[in-house]
Amino acid sequence: MRFFQNNEQLLIPEPLTDKQDHPQLKPISHFEQLPSVFPNTTYTFSTELEQILYGKQLFLENLPLPIEQLHQHYVNGYLSYRKGIENQMCIRCGNENPSLFAKFSCSRCKHECTYCRKCISMGRVSECTPLISWTGPKPQDSIPLKPLVWNGTLSVGQQKASEALVDTVKHNDQILIWAVCGAGKTEILFEGIEAALLENKRVCIATPRTDVVIELAPRIKSAFPQIEVIALYGGSEDHGSTAPLTIATTHQLLRFYRAFDMIIIDEVDAFPYSAEPMLQYAVDQAKKDTSSTIYLTATPNNKWKQEIAAGKRKAVTIPARYHRHPLPVPTFAWCGNWEKKVKKQKLPQNVLQWIKDHLKSHKQAFLFVPRIDYIKIVVSILQKLDHRIEGVYSEDPRRKDKVSAFRRGEIPILVTTTILERGVTVPKIDVAVLGAEDTIFTESALVQISGRVGRSSDYPTGSIIFFHYGKTKEMIQAKKHIEGMNKEASEKGLLEV
Asked: Which residue range or ranges hold the Helicase ATP-binding domain (predicted)?
């Protein structure tokens, strides 16, 4: 869209200008400075727009009100027009890579218009795209005196982390919670979230993967039944909503702007967040200038470990699971040139026997493979043993249905890529990795995969086996990592056995 700047330096959208103003119309990015307008406290603003737009950065076409009404909110200081692209940078996603910009002949601004290719999946941001944000008051949330209704009991390690988190919220600080897989990280968050809500703060739990959002949402809603909770991911029904408590994939944070007083980054080490500056930019843009940030991980990177050891990063470590049983330690099993066998529609004998044993004992299991290419072949081999065996991968259109069926016990063995290394909890399972020597299986990935086993207090044990064609440093480090956590937990008296 093009704008005209009047004598008060206010922007007037093209549809609201007279014909004689047309020579001065230009894309929003072509204006050197954009004015700030103080709210007119006598103006009656739209509460519908407030609910949709608060803490967001959206396009005009995302908003249900006519442009005349939107513009009245602008001139009265209740919304702002911001540049989508400025100084060769996408303001929404932070992209500054020249190769990730392109030009097109734009019918809206009558120019060869530059747009950002980096975040195109969230809608096109171009030189003439205004980002619309709310500058009026914060919506009034109805928060009960006791929003948390969870009646569980925290372990000693969980309680220590919970108290540190509450303190972090009260002081608008940052903290890393380094907790082993299955330590009960969700429950650790409850008291901190409650503390934030009671201070009328807005909270976001951001996680890299859709599966985690889907699993986490009902647990959070159950713990805070009187609080409105929205879950945002590709295809969710809550887009366009705002609430005191938001659970979202990190990609969805690109839609937010100065929205949250408390932001929790779950699995901070996980792909794509750990490897994508755009998502880290999105987090920084989504939280308020004064806010608290909580990082959660079972596998911090080496830099963060060094900062913790040096006292440069505030952190709490939980080396034991809430049920006080040790972490299952992986075993290694050589299986020969498994890739060669798979290409011939066969599996190594010890892998095949592992599958048969689990089918016979009726114990569910995950079988992780390095790449999507192997899913179809391995599943076709295994379905000769049991037609219920399935495979799943990131772009599988039936991914959610298959994971749900596995949870219900309808799928005995689920063959998967690393897409399910995190966030999916099934009480009584074993896990195997085929081709554990592959470069995709880093120390972090193998620790997370191992963490799928023994998570339930009813079934705190289980087996994890790495089938390989040669041990790697990553495999050895993953085993040492797990053994190290068990040792620390034992020394701190956090284990029953």
From this structure: 166-318
The count of domains in the chain is 3
Place 271 in a pLDDT band, splitting at 50, 70 and 90: low
Q: Which domain holds residue 124?
A: 2-134
Instruction: Give 428-459 as a DSSP string.
Output: SEEEEEETTTSTT--HHHHHHHHTTSS-SSSS
Q: What is the CATH number of the domain that holds 358?
A: 3.40.50.300
- Specify the pLDDT at position 497: 61
For the stretch 317-364, pLDDT in tens is: 999 998 899 999 999 999 999 999 999 999 999 999 999 999 999 999
> What is each CA distance from 364 to 367, 405, 428, 497, in whole angstroms?
10, 12, 7, 25
Average pLDDT over residues 185-214: 93
Do 211 and 341 belong to one domain?
Answer: no
Residue 307 in domain: yes
Amino acid identity, position 213: V
Q: Answer for the pair 242, 56: CB distance below 8 angstroms, yes or no.
A: yes
Q: In the prediction, which pLDDT does 21 show?
A: 59
Here the contacts of 333-336 (C-beta below 8 Å, separation 24 or greater) are 333/465, 333/466, 333/467, 333/468, 334/467, 334/468, 334/469, 334/470, 335/434, 335/467, 335/468, 335/469, 336/469
Whether residue 298 lies inside any domain: the answer is yes
